[in-house]
Amino acid sequence: MSIEILALAATVALLTACGMGNRGGQTAPPAPTAVRESQPGTGFVPASPNSYDSADTAVLVKKDGKEGTVTLLNLDTGRCYTLAVEGTSNLYDKYGEAVSLEQIGVGDIVDVTFLRSKKRLNTMQISPSAWVYASASRYEIDLKRSEVTIGEDVYKLTGDTLYLSQNMRIEAMDINPVDVLTFKGIGSSILSVSVEQGHGYLRLKNEENFIDGYMEIGQSSYRRIEEDMLLTVPEGHYQIRVSKRGGGGVKEVTIRRGEETTLDIGDLEVPEIQLGTIIFTLEPSSAKLYIDGEKADPTAPVELEYGIHQMMVRANGYQTITQYIKVAQPSGGLDIKLDKVEDEEEDEEDEDRLAKYKVFVDAPENAEVYLDGNYVGIAPVSFAKSEGSHIVTLRRSGYETRSYTISVDGEYKDITYSFAELIPGLTTVPTGEPAVDATPAPTAQPAPAQ
To answer: What distance in Å separates the CA atoms of residue 232 and residue 221, rounded to the nearest whole number?
Structure first.
């Protein structure tokens, strides 16, 4: 029997301050040399020449070409200040080459000199002491610890870290685990996080025949098909593979940032039921087997419909394995060996106890609430508590769909979230057609309460 193990891409993620983002790097600009003597309590450094009296390393949070101003966030005080950009102001890249204001981006870490008494910019250069980690898709953001892990490196978030999307300030919870991000910082501190590639939403239409089947988005993301799903998907063009009982087909769809796209799969066919038998061999023998979320007996042959299924094998003291398998022949076998871990995973009894507590979504009222893409109900609503990172999506007809990443703790008590009201706007897109009259989303203000 042909049993194909399909790759499961797991991206864990999670992620506040004065403003908006682009790039970093610098050297002292070709201007009079500043005397680097700290002024206690100011965050600024005095300079000697008459062309400027202050110097600073800051984050560019806003630039206004029409008004000819830039707004900067001082890294010592956490306060913003605005300077006028005049004809005598000189701008440089990190190598000291002259550039225009358009070439320095919001979110860049810059070294500036300025005349404080007249609030006039003298020089601004992308700081050479700053680093940039662009196009990051594999990262983990832990807000509780104020840490970001990129590869094997761990960086610290500060109280003034900026979170940006399309040069607009957003909240940490607006960032989705599927987003591609650009991180900028100095030393071990991250000072700005910009969404380079965001996310949109995918809804299936006429999916009744494929309930409990699976869909593959691109080449690495698998989801079990349930009724009335609203999935968060990275923006881009995709082939969507729908499968049940070995039937289904492929559809193409384009996901746009902040927009909801509906994909009709009613024309795909599901064949008659065909069953395959799998004999599982598990190590350790005490390991428990789950197929499509249901507990199965690994000591006896397991009969499954043709198609894709989710398999999970777990045992205390061992690393849990979660994979997708494809059944395409009448019989076969599968050997699974778990690796030992130092710390035992949470017992099922602990998980069951935690699930007795609730996560409440109180606002916005009358919005549809989806948890990790699955429909929960109309707010105010609640769902069982499950520790970890989750995506809460809010939707209402005639309003912009919004999603937030929340981090649910393992404490035995309820949690309540109140999110910002949804903004009127058209975001539903039938089969990939572009939406019209969609207004930019403002800063979300979810307010968790214990």
So the answer is: 11
In this structure, what are the phi and psi dihedrals at residue 23, rounded to the nearest 5 degrees? -140, 175
CA 416 – CA 385 distance, rounded (Å): 11
Q: What is the pLDDT of residue 74?
A: 92
| Bridge partners for 156 per DSSP | 147, 189
- The per-residue pLDDT for range 187-220, each reduced to its tens digit, is 999 999 999 999 999 999 999 999 999 999 987 7
| Whole-number average pLDDT of the chain | 83
Tokens of 376: 């929960």
CA distances from 142 to 147, 313, 334 (A): 5, 27, 36
Contacts of 97 (CB under 8 A, 6+ apart): none
Would you say residue 392 has pLDDT above 90? yes
**Whole-angstrom distance, CA of residue 297 vs CA of residue 291:** 10
Sign of the C-alpha dihedral computed for residues 289, 293, 297 and 298 taken in this order: negative
Residue type, 109: I
Whole-number Å distance between alpha carbons of 243 and 262: 18
Cα separation, 264 vs 111, whole angstroms: 52
The CA–CA distances, whole Å, from 419 to 6, 392, 422, 428 equal 37, 10, 9, 21
Instruction: Output the six-digit token pair for 209.
Output: 């025949």
* DSSP-derived 3-state class of residue 372: coil
Distances (CA, A) of 187 to 24, 128, 145, 154, 156: 12, 12, 18, 11, 9
Neighbours of 279 (CB within 10 A): 15
E strand or H helix that includes residue 351: helix 348-354
Which residues make Cβ contacts (< 8 Å) with residue 223, sequence separation at least 6? 214, 215, 217, 229, 231, 373
What tokens were used for 2?
Answer: 């042909």
Output the six-digit token pair for 114.
Answer: 């300025």
pTM of the model: 0.73
Count the alpha carbons within 13 Å of 152 in the hemisphere toward its beta carbon.
0
Q: How far is CA 45 from the centre of its chain?
A: 37
Q: Is there a cis peptide before residue 364, judged by omega within 30 degrees of 0?
A: yes
Distance from C-alpha of 280 to C-alpha of 313, rounded to nearest angstrom: 11
Tokens linked to 153: 């490196």
Residue 423's contacts (CB-CB under 8 Å, 6 or more residues apart) are 399, 400, 439, 441, 442
